[in-house]
Structures are given as C-alpha cells and as structure tokens.
Specification:
single chain, 259 residues, alpha/beta, 6-stranded mixed beta sheet, 10 strands
Length: 259
C-alpha cells in the first residue's frame, strides 16, 4: 500500500486555476522529485499537502488514513489541521528559522510544545534535547547547537531546518527548492544531507531546479506544466526518453544543469 495517495487535487486562487487535477502515489522510502518551470504549480502542491493551503477538490491519504476529502463538507479546526500537518515535514527554501532562538531551541521548540500537551506521558525536556542533538550530529552541526541562525551560513541554516523538520518524525519529508537561496558552493552540503536521508529510507518529496540531483537521487520524477502533471515516471523514463513536447522543451532550456 502506498504511504501517500493524491487524487484529483485542484486549487484555485480567485479565477487562477493553479492545480488542475493532480494525482500520484508514493511508496514508503521512495524519493519523488517535482520539476517544472516557475508558475507550474509545484510549490502550491506542496503547500496543499502540508495543509498550508486548502484544495478545492481532491483527496489526500497518508498511510491508509484519509486526511482530506473535498466531498466531505466539513470545516477543519486548527487542532485538526495541526494534527494532519504532523504527517509531513516541510523544509522551506528560505530556512524560516526563529532568529531569537539558538539552533538547539529551533529544533526542540515544536517537539516541546507537542509533548507538553501529553502531560506526564510526554518526553522530558532532557529527552527532547538529546534527540535534537542526535539530529544535529546527523546533519553535521552538533558543534553549532548553542549558535544563533545569524551566526550560520545559508547551507548550515538549511541543514538546521532539515533537522527541525525531522524532529517530529514525519511520514513524509518535503522540500521546497531547498538550495534556491544558497550560493553554488553551499548547495552541495545540503544535497549531501538529502542523499544521506535517502540512503536510510526516508520518504521524500523534493521540489527542485537541480536537474542532475533529481536525476540521481529520485525513484520517481514528476514534470509539471500549467497546473497538471505533464509527465511522470522513473528518472530514466523522464530524463532520457521524455514523451511530452513540453518536457523536451523544458530540458532543452535546462540542459546545461543536467549531469
């Protein structure tokens, strides 16, 4: 059974139809890269999956649990939305770290709030910090635990953001152009962490403009254009044998980025 099933997802902003019936599935441990030109609907799709935006139509199922169904006309409470978001971890392109908190606090804050609601059944602050330090070690930044975001490079900030997303143990980790705000020399350190996450079986959805990386790390590729999935398949199918003329034209423009 797929860990994620998306069926006929539609999203409009006013009269602008941004997603026009998106459907795909993802197995546990798979990496899906979503590519396409700006304005194709990639980020909106991620925002709908993470319940930052609410789709007008469609269904979202995670691990057999129906999280969203447009046919059920029910207004969701803030609590319900927060609980559904826990299935997904989202790493933003602009890091979105809290500047007033240390690196360690940035990672532990959400977990502490979540565990506090469990009362005596929740993890202690010491246990949460121990877990956070393991995550920092995993992304190679344990020595920066007491630093503040302003003291880190962009690549380091993004690695902290990845650790923060992992702290809540999401079913699916999502990345929205994780290297777009970085200088080229800092891109490699973030992509290395993502590759290591793949190696340990982390299920991921990556919106990216890094064609070579998408080709090498992904199990599945989606090429979006004008709010639809124009092409979907393995990296070999999409990169080496594209069927759509729009896909071919996109790769011709991006050819210099493909390795």
């Amino acid at each position: 059974m797929p860990i994620l099933e998306v069926k006929n997802l539609c999203k409009c902003f006013g009269k602008n139809e941004v997603l026009k019936g998106i459907s795909f599935s993802l197995k546990k441990g798979e990496v899906l890269s979503i590519i396409g030109s700006s304005g194709s609907g990639k980020t909106t799709l991620l925002r709908c999956l993470n319940f930052i935006e609410t789709a007008e139509a469609g269904q979202i199922t995670v691990d057999g649990k129906l999280l969203f169904d447009s046919n059920v006309c029910k207004k969701q409470s803030d609590k319900e939305i927060r609980e559904k978001r826990l299935h997904f971890g989202l790493v933003f392109q602009s890091f979105n770290l809290f500047p007033q908190y240390t690196v360690l606090k940035n990672i532990t804050l959400a977990k502490e709030l979540l565990e506090a609601k469990k009362g005596n059944d929740g993890l202690s602050k010491a246990q949460i910090e121990a877990q956070a330090k393991k995550l920092l070690d995993r992304v190679g930044l344990l020595e920066k635990a007491s630093s503040y975001p302003c003291e880190l490079s962009g690549g380091q900030q993004q690695r902290v953001a990845i650790a923060r997303a992992l702290a809540l143990s999401p079913d699916i980790l999502c990345f929205d152009e994780p290297t777009s705000a970085l200088d080229p020399e800092l891109t490699g350190e973030v992509l290395k962490v993502i590759k290591e996450l793949k190696d340990v079986g982390t299920t991921m959805i990556i919106v990216t403009h890094e064609m070579g990386f998408a080709k090498n790390v992904s199990d599945k590729i989606i090429f979006m254009a004008d709010g639809i999935i124009e092409e979907m398949g393995t990296p070999e199918q999409v990169f080496e044998h594209p069927k759509s003329e729009k896909t071919k034209a996109f790769f011709e423009k991006s050819f210099e980025n493909i390795v």
